[in-house]
Model the fold of this input.
Amino acid sequence: MGVELHKDLLESINVDVERHAKMMGMGLEGYKAQFMSQANRPKAMEYFNWFMSEIQGQRIAEINQLRAEKKPAVGAFCIFVPEEIVVGAGGVCYGLCGGSNATVSDAESELPRNICPLIKSAYGFKLQRTCAYTQSADFICGETTCEAKKKTWELLNKHHPVHVINVPHMKRERDLSMWQEEIKEFKERIESVTEKKLTLAEMLKGVEIINAKRSALLRLDALRSQNPDVMPISGKDALFILQMGSMDDVVRYTQNVNNVCDELEIRLQKGISVFPKNTPRLMVLGTPIAIPNWKLHTAIESSGGCVINEESCTGHRYYKDNVNVEGVTSKDELYHRLIERYAKIDCACFTPNTGRVEKIVQMYKDRKADGVIYYTLSFCHTYNVESHLVTEALAKESIPCLVIESDYSPEDAGQIKTRVEAFLESIAFKQKAQTFANK
Amino acid sequence: MGVELHKDLLSSIGVDVERHAKMMGMGLAGYQAGFMSQPNRPKAMAYFDWFMSEIQAERIAEINALKAQKKPAIGTFCIFVPEEIVVGAGGACFGLCGGANPPIADAESELPRNICPLIKSAYGFKLQHTCAYTQSADFIYGETTCEAKKKTWELLGKHHPVHVMNIPHMKREKDLKMWQEEIKEFKEHIEEVSERKLSLAEMLEGVKLINAKRDAMKRLDTLRGMHPDIMPISGKDALFISQMSFLDDPKRFTQKVNELCDELDERIKNKVSVFPENTPRIMVLGTPIAPPNWKLHTAVEGSGACIINEEGCIGHRYFKDNVDIEGVQDEDELYARLMQRYSKIDCACFTPNTGRTDKIVQMYKDRKADGVIYYTLSFCHTYNVESHLVTEALAKEGIPCLVIESDYSPEDAGQIKTRVEAFLESITFKQKAEAFANK
Ligand code: SF4
Ligand code: SF4
Done:
């Protein structure tokens, strides 16, 4: 495994090498058990299997190679960080969202127990020094989308350099113009790492690369969910691909996602599905599902359902919009275009956020899905409160919906499975009743 | 009781009169049991006792009499709403923060269980139609200081007219500029209710009234907290006065607080204390304590200690700063001065918020207090996360500190009392040991 090979490097960036190796070993085992055993996986998943084995090994070496050339390495927690700029500077922007339970208790020595597990997990990785991405980051780019994060940066700052982007809670003209300044400041922060000015051409190149990545993911989204009878890839595999999207080298990743898509296209032509016909097809709405948090997908797909889409930040919300760079001739114009794109993100941190509800209903209809699961991480107030508005709209459209709030502890896995099973049964019952009615 | 007398009015503004009367009866009984039994209370408390009995009656009649003259009645949840402007327009600006447990179950039919009880309580009052203030409000003025509130406005908007003021999370030049525009818009909303322009002179008059109120409260704070051997008023009574500052007519209230202060002045001269010498004097830090949430004060003062200050929004944070209007010539200048004052509020919603920690240590020293209780309402992420920074600073200064997180359910009252008792014992032990050491 890659981690052993890169021991010296890991040590040099102050990773707790032993503990890290143990955790990676466990993670890899979990991956093997939950992913490799799936029947009839697309061949192109091999790349992602390999990447998983090198996620904290070879990939970290690549990142540190870039850093040696003064290319920036930025850790982020949110899809509001303009990765286009980092990539334009030849650097890497990766997600530090924590999805692991193993670091939560360490974090609780400094953070409250009752905040979102994602934040605690990531914070714990820093305290333990068991995430090589965190250790590689020139700085961590926080934002103000949620208050638990916003306040955590003040604490994290004691352990690692942090830059905070102030994302407004509204989207009026004046909020957006303030936000645009944040993007400009972020670019300046990047320049302080590279120690040179970033040109418009470089930034445009960065946008092009990221646009291509998002397009590939949009393609994958369409392929996995467009045919109600053929599910050419499991939801778990698709989720894993998405999760890797915030870690891998963008160009290589895009290529490999497109390889998967080529294969899925053929599968669709031939009617090759990894699930039996009439498997209930579910959409998952809500908060990010960070690696290695595969709890919900595992519960659904081992109970006879299939996940065809994640509406969340580690999913559709991330790739649904591209930056339009047509005719951009100045940096200010580019910042403006970036804001245009970023302001389309329908995060629950905004008030109001009505667009999200309408989008969800439309997504459901487009995909002819059979039900949705509104999934939130525990104590995520914004998505939790908003769930009332979303489920109300879903009920009006008679869309079956199950609300699940959960953290990373394995304790509620059984309970979640039971609830998912009951939900799937009710959907299957409805389907059958309808077939009778249509006879 | 006043509530019976004003039955017609209450029912005309949509109050569920029967349920309301029952709740008010319970509240009043709770007040009588918890407050009236205290020995040696200042005589001037008689006014506040009376006010309590008319809180949802005569005072509501006053507010509605103003409304009949097109004077605005604005309900708020936060000390960021510029009441100066409402009062300048001749209207009433009152706090709707909920401190009662009974409406919570109703609120949980639309809101998540695991958000702050203050929000749920207030929301429940609206669903139940059992708060005459809420029912009297031309509109509720929400803000974006915390995300549970921010998202709740979207739901509350279905039940009552709501405006939202966007409070930034940072205090840089550009954030304050945006904030100042919010104040101007607030004034325009007030003008919509009064159907006429508000003059600079009127607004200045409003500022003067509110400045005087804050001065009176600061005077009370000094009198209760600055004399280590004489505690001329109980913490519970002082808290109650703070709570009433959000409901009463500001002019009358100021007058009554000053009368009380005159009496306390006398008491200090005559060394009349409501607690024995060497009673541990405790400061309470953190989140708002809305009526009838008297749980913590009851536990502390029922265990042989005295509370000499609340640093919370219902307390010192509310009255510590005044608006400097010297030389103000035009409206924009006034907004800038209001901004200067409002941006001094050291709410945990800001990042960073370092000034608060320094202030707390200074307040402690000024008052020669014996310990602090960091009190947060459950699930208040901002104050909860910030508690780590505050307690760290306190520890560095050797200041004894107890952290309590609680909601409105009576269940943890016993546990809180036990923890408070143990905390007070450790303080007394320290005091005695010190006395020996100094011999
Ligand atoms: S899931 Fe919610 S609480 Fe957690 S980091 Fe994201 S926005 Fe914040
Ligand atoms: S106490 Fe905290 S969570 Fe509750 S309303 Fe205030 S800021 Fe929000």
